[in-house]
TrEMBL record, chain A:
Organism: Gracilibacillus kekensis
Record keywords, A-Z: Cell membrane, Ion transport, Membrane, Sodium, Sodium transport, Symport, Transmembrane, Transmembrane helix, Transport
GO BP, one annotated term: sodium ion transport
Transmembrane segments: 6-24, 45-68, 80-99, 120-138, 158-178, 190-213, 233-251, 272-297, 317-343, 364-383, 389-414, 421-444, 450-467
PROSITE patterns the UniProt entry points to: NA_SOLUT_SYMP_3 (PS50283)
Name of this chain's protein: Solute:Na+ symporter, SSS family
Membrane topology summary: Multi-pass membrane protein
Recorded catalytic activity of this chain's protein: L-proline(in) + Na(+)(in) = L-proline(out) + Na(+)(out)
GO molecular function: symporter activity
Subcellular localization(s) per the UniProt record: Cell membrane
Primary location recorded for the protein, binned into one broad class: membrane
Family per similarity comment: Belongs to the sodium:solute symporter (SSF) (TC 2.A.21) family.
TrEMBL record, chain B:
Top-level lineage group: Bacteria
Keywords annotated in UniProt: Membrane, Transmembrane, Transmembrane helix
Transmembrane segments: 7-27, 33-54
Record's protein name: Uncharacterized protein
Keyword Transmembrane included in the entry's annotation: yes
Length: 492, 62
């Protein structure tokens, strides 16, 4: 691809995104809920697009296409199981939203700390999120570096790509907090869904239409249309990969925090349904890319090259190829900026506020704003170092964050859950997941995420039963949610 | 959970369960587009429908 074209497209994207970020600066941003939650007044449309952009990182169009290239249709199933898991928003969404408004929660870990009546619950939950999500962001940055380096034949060096991405993520989260994030996210996801769909239509046409496309796969590699197929997706691998992702919508704070933000439940409904439609299209697009690459370039050494090869091929006009390439860069940035913002709110709200005595709302916001660049620099440094440990923590991130799930379910549905139960289950299970990932990723043939959910559930239940639950709070909290949800049902 | 959530929640669970079981049993030898690809696509569309129905009553009260 021509370097000038790549630079020009990046420049145009940056200018448009920054203008949009500045235009988004309405409303107050001088409070924690203003800056980090958009005053809980986000409408359904931008919420849906931004939720999609945050969820679908560069992983989709590069990683999922690569997984399809390697393992066939199982990659589609993997993503569809994740997709089905987003239905958890239909159950947990209104509950997060109700208690968020009533008790003024800004972060999911703050909610846990208050519900279990122990500030250390919030501290532990916040820290465990940081441990997994900072390396995850670092790997996203690394991905951008390689992508730009690859498609321009080293004309844009690795470090330059990483620096561009870090600065953009920082700027988008800084200009107006969550508002600039959701608006630039929306730009990115709209751009991507349109251009990547056009690319798919062009490629499939080039391969002889839909029937020609499937006929080529059936002819070249029929195994790719079934699981376990070539064995890449054997059942236990599939289960181990999908279980942590199934719970993604409540385990990952950068998306569960979104449940506090919609202006009304109707807006949340639009967010959920909009995301599902977007997600299904995007998933099919990514998988078709992977299959197309396997037809056109059957002998790639590295499956992650499937997407760059496809975009540089004759089937895609160069300008469109470059736009999608910059769109993929933007997809990684839209994931990182949301994570930056969420992690800084976790730090200021759950760590700083609980350790420092007179930390009022203003001070928390000031600390949060200082922490955003610190986390960005940390992610940048991690991306530069390319340490093995960082890669391990990033791979472990979906499995590692799953350990919070029993505590979140308990928050709304189990009055006997206790602070000790949460602290022990989250900290011990996180360590177990990291150890399994550091020693090859399997224990007795099962992936770390399965052990994570198993250990955290057992520990949460046993320790909770052995300790005293905060009965008054549990009654108030769960009673309130129950009452409200019952009224909602009556109205229909 | 209210009754409506329990009913639809159960249906979601069944759909997810089918998404694991059918491709690895009945469809593991069907190497055509109408095998696992079609099944997972249909289940995904069913999930959208269920979410549509389950959240139908969500109002615009702020």
């Amino acid at each position: 691809m021509s370097t000038t074209l790549v630079w020009a497209t990046i420049a145009i994207y940056v200018v448009i995104a920054i203008v949009i970020a500045f235009l988004s600066r309405n409303g107050k941003q001088n409070s924690m809920s203003g800056y980090f939650l958009g005053e809980r007044k986000l409408n359904g449309f931008v919420s849906a697009l931004s939720y999609s952009a945050t969820t679908y990182s560069a992983f989709m169009l590069v990683g999922l296409a690569g997984l399809t290239y390697n393992g066939g249709i199982g990659a589609f199933g993997f993503e569809i199981i994740y997709f089905m898991g987003v239905s958890l928003v239909a159950i947990f969404g209104p509950r997060f939203w109700l208690v968020g408004k009533k008790y003024g929660y800004v972060t999911p870990s703050e909610m846990l700390g208050d519900r279990y009546q122990n500030k250390w619950v919030a501290v532990v939950a916040a820290i465990s999120s940081c441990i997994f999500l900072i390396p995850y962001s670092a790997v996203q940055l690394t991905g951008i570096g390689y992508l730009l380096q690859g498609v321009t034949n080293d004309a844009i060096p690795f470090t330059t790509g990483v620096i561009i991405a870090t600065i953009l993520a920082l700027v988008f989260s800084y200009i107006a907090g969550i508002r600039s994030v959701v608006w630039t996210d929306s730009l990115q996801s709209l751009l991507m869904i349109i251009t990547s769909t056009i690319v798919v239509i062009m490629i499939v046409n080039g391969l002889g239409g839909i029937s020609g496309f499937f006929a080529s796969i059936e002819e070249n590699n029929p195994q790719a249309l079934a699981v376990p197929g070539n064995g890449f997706f054997n059942f236990w691998t599939f289960l181990g990969l999908t279980i942590p992702w199934f719970f993604f919508s409540i385990s990952n704070p950068q998306v569960s925090q979104r449940l506090f933000m919609p202006a009304s439940l109707k807006s949340m409904r639009h967010m959920l349904l909009g995301f599902l439609i977007f997600g299904l299209i995007y998933t099919i697009v990514s998988v078709v890319w992977g299959f197309s690459a396997s037809i056109l370039f059957p002998n790639l050494e590295n499956a992650d090259l499937a997407t760059p090869m496809l975009l540089s091929s004759d089937l895609v006009p160069p300008v469109l190829g470059v736009i999608v390439m910059v769109g993929i860069m933007a997809a990684a940035i839209s994931t990182i900026d949301s994570i930056l913002l969420t992690l800084s709110s976790l730090f200021s709200r759950d760590v700083y506020r609980n350790i420092k005595k007179d930390a009022n709302d203003k001070k928390q916001l000031a600390v949060g704003k200082v922490v955003i660049p610190v986390i960005a620099v940390l992610a940048f440094l991690f991306a530069q170092l390319q340490l093995d440990l960082i890669a391990v923590l990033s791979v472990a991130s979906s499995a590692g964050l799953i350990v919070i799930v029993p505590a979140i379910i308990g928050t709304f549905f189990w009055k006997k859950g206790t602070a000790a139960g949460v602290i022990v289950s989250v900290s011990v299970s996180s360590i177990i997941v990291i150890l399994i990932e550091a020693t090859g990723g399997l224990l007795f043939g099962l992936k770390s995420g399965l052990w994570g959910i198993l250990f955290s559930t057992i520990l949460f239940i046993i320790i909770s039963l052995l300790t005293k639950a905060p009965e008054q709070k549990a009654d108030d909290f769960i009673g309130y949610v129950k009452e409200k949800m019952k009224n909602k049902q009556k109205l229909t | 959970m209210n009754k409506k959530e329990k009913t639809w929640g159960l249906i979601i669970l069944i759909i997810v369960f089918l998404g694991y079981i059918i491709p690895y049993t009945f469809l593991s030898n069907v190497t055509k587009w109408y095998g696992s690809f079609l099944l997972w696509t249909i289940l995904a569309i069913l999930i959208i429908l269920v979410n549509y129905l389950l959240t139908k009553s969500w109002g615009d009260e702020e």
